[in-house]
């Protein structure tokens, strides 16, 4: 159930996060310059939101993203304005800049696994990028590759697309910037994580631009730049700042593997929600992923192990004990 927050209007409730507009305490009008982004303890798998939450998950994701934003500050500006939020969402909420999001899911891969592996086995490519022969599940790629996907409407699947299709969506200059930033973020993430015993197999990041800057670049109003259909190919990247938004390098947006146990050719030990994915597709759950029925509730031991993996990822990367504010 979506949380109500005094002094804020709920604008959007996603699989994991909610977006709220702050309200003026005197007039009740919305403050459209910023948003309150709140991560819940909800967890999704196979395009279903599960009935069973993972305790503290929202706080882990938020605190880890804040740590990573600092590590990546020289690569890209981020959307966070303040962590001084209502007490009811302390640790899970941040005030962020209001941005017009770019219409691409930006994904980069340093290792071959998941959907990328399936495409490779069928065609020898990932998102149209030709890869060497003989790779297996868990193989390190010669260099990280940009493997974007569409932003599908709620309830539909994101679909892999080629770089050429990204160019069609946003124009060549923005496409190159998104590709280079996404790959640079994954490379920086792995440089830092490797020293802490973690491999980041792949990651998904999202970018937006300031509607005021976008309006100036297009010769329109900020409201139109925020809400109307955009001809992105006409946008000059020199006139808009591409801003890193949502979350970054978390166990929800990335695959984290234990470096000490990495061995290509088999399933890796992961810090993400693979624990509960594996249970859902095991005989123990009794659930058929191909059916229309929702997944069953998670047993306590799967919940506990999933939470432990999230916390372990946070503590291993940051070197700090996890605690709620």
* SS class: alpha+beta
The parts where pLDDT drops under 50 for at least 5 residues are: none
Helix content percent band: 25-40%
Radius of gyration: 20 Å
Q: Please count the beta strands (DSSP E, at least 2 residues each).
A: 15
The CATH first-level class of the largest domain comes to Alpha Beta
Sheet-strand content, in percent, reads 15-25%
- What do we call the CATH homologous superfamily of the largest domain? ATP-grasp fold, B domain
N- to C-terminal distance: 23 Å
Task: Briefly summarize what is shown.
This protein has about 325 residues and is an alpha+beta fold. Helix content is about 30%, strand content about 20%. It is globular, with a radius of gyration of 20 Å.
SSE layout and pairings?
Blueprint: E1 8-13, E2 17-22, E3 34-39, E4 44-45, E5 48-49, H1 57-71, E6 80-82, E7 93-97, E8 100-101, E9 106-111, H2 114-123, E10 125-126, E11 129-130, E12 140-146, H3 163-170, H4 172-194, E13 198-209, H5 211-218, H6 222-227, E14 242-245, E15 254-258, H7 274-280, H8 300-318
Antiparallel strand pairs: 1-2, 2-3, 3-7, 4-5, 6-7, 8-13, 9-12, 9-13, 10-11, 13-14, 13-15
Helix pairs in contact: 1-8, 3-4, 7-8
What can you see in these coordinates?
This protein is α+β, with helices and mostly antiparallel strands. It has two domains: 91 residues, 2-Layer Sandwich (Phosphorylase Kinase, domain 1), CATH 3.30.200; 156 residues, D-amino Acid Aminotransferase, Chain A, domain 1, CATH 3.30.470.20. Helix 1 runs parallel beside helix 8 and helix 7 packs antiparallel against helix 8. The longest helix has 23 residues.
């Amino acid at each position: 159930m979506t949380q109500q927050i005094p002094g804020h209007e709920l604008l959007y409730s996603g699989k994991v996060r909610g977006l709220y507009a702050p309200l003026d305490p005197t007039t009740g009008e919305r403050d459209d310059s910023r948003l309150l982004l709140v991560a819940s303890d909800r967890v999704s798998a196979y395009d279903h939101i599960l009935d069973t939450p993972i305790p503290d998950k929202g706080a882990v994701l938020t605190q880890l993203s804040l740590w990573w934003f600092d590590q990546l500050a020289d690569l890209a500006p981020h959307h966070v304005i303040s962590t001084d939020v209502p007490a009811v969402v302390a640790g899970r909420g941040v005030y962020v800049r209001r941005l017009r999001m770019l219409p691409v899911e930006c994904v980069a891969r340093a290792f071959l696994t998941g959907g990328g592996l399936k495409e490779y086995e069928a065609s020898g490519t990932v998102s149209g990028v030709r890869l060497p022969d003989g790779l297996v599940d868990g193989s390190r790629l010669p260099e990280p590759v940009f493997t974007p996907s569409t932003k599908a409407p709620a309830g539909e699947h994101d679909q892999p697309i080629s770089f050429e299709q990204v160019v069609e969506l946003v124009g060549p200059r923005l496409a190159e910037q998104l590709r280079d930033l996404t790959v640079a973020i994954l490379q920086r993430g792995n440089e830092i994580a490797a020293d802490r015993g973690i491999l980041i197999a792949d990651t998904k990041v999202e970018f937006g631009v300031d509607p005021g800057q976008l309006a100036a670049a297009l010769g329109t109003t900020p409201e139109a730049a925020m809400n109307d259909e955009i001809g992105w190919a006409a946008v000059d990247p020199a006139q808009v700042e591409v801003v890193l938004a949502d979350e970054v390098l978390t166990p929800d947006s990335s695959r984290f593997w234990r470096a000490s146990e990495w061995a290509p050719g088999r399933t890796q030990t992961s810090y993400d929600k693979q624990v509960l994915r594996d249970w859902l597709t095991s005989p123990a759950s009794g659930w058929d992923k191909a059916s229309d029925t929702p997944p069953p509730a998670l047993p306590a031991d799967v919940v506990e192990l999933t939470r432990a993996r999230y916390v372990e990822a946070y503590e291993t990367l940051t070197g700090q004990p996890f605690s709620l504010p």
